Amino acid sequence: MSPLLNRPDFDVIASWVEPGHKVLDLGCGDGSLLRHLIDSRGVRGWGVEIDDANVLAAIQKGINIIQGNLEKGLDEFADQAFDHVVLSRTLQTVRHTEGILREMLRVGREAVVSFPNFAYWKNLRAVLDGQMPVSEDLPYEWYDSPNVRFFTLLDFESLCRQMNLRIRERRVLDEHGQPVDNEDDKELNFLGSLAVYRLTQPR
To answer: Of 80, 164, 189, 198, which cross-links 169 as Cys (Cβ 3.0–4.6 Å)?
Structure first.
């Protein structure tokens, strides 16, 4: 089994998806999440990925995949074509953040977003020690990172309010993939390494 299949956000995402649903995975990498959802939930899945090697790997996993650049939008997909549009650990690599969130909720009934939380206490400690953090959820060195955004749970939720997006559900995990249970948003922001959100348009 690929180690990516043990990624804790995969299990959270799978728990939100009903059998037979249509799922679009943006920045799908080698297709591991879609393969997991197809095998465990019986979804009908499609992926979008820009990297040549990842596209080939996804095809080898039997994934329906389109090679494309998320920054150019999702014009090839019709409105509300999917039940879920997923952006797993990719939002921090996107320059047009608001645009991709709007497009996700145009083509899908629900957007599912996971991202590393820069305010996690170990990340803050690394910065206080004079270095950019490197961790399970932020695995790159500063000079080879694909990340162009560094933000926190509270930053993301503030953006959702500004965009009038409804947060249907939130799961916050520590660096070991265990849920962080705390009702205080500031404490959660400090203790959580990875966040996973379900978003919808307000009714």
So the answer is: 198
- Could you state, in order of their start, the residue ranges of all structural domains in the chain? 3-200
Please, which residues have CB within 8 angstroms of residue 124's CB and are 6 or more apart in sequence?
190
DSSP letter for each residue of 121-154:
HHHHHHHHTTS----SSS-S-TTT--------HH
DSSP single-letter state for residue 162 = H
Report the distance separating Cα 63 and Cα 61, nearest Å. Answer: 6
- The strand pair at 166-173 and 194-200 is best described as antiparallel
User: Buried (b) or exposed (e) across 110-126, using 16+ Cβ within 10 A?
Assistant: bbbbbbbbbbbeebeeb
pTM over 0.85: yes
**Averaged pLDDT, 79-89:** 97
What burial class does residue 58 get, using C-beta atoms within 10 Å of its C-beta: 0-12 exposed, 13-18 middle, 19+ buried? buried
Give the chain's length: 203
The model's pLDDT over 157-188, given as tens digits with 9 standing for 90+, comes to 999 999 999 999 999 999 999 999 877 888 99
Write out the H or E segment, with its range, that includes residue 98: helix 97-107
Question: Does the pLDDT value for residue 49 go beyond 50?
Answer: yes
CA-based nearest residue to 64, from 25, 12, 10, 106: 25
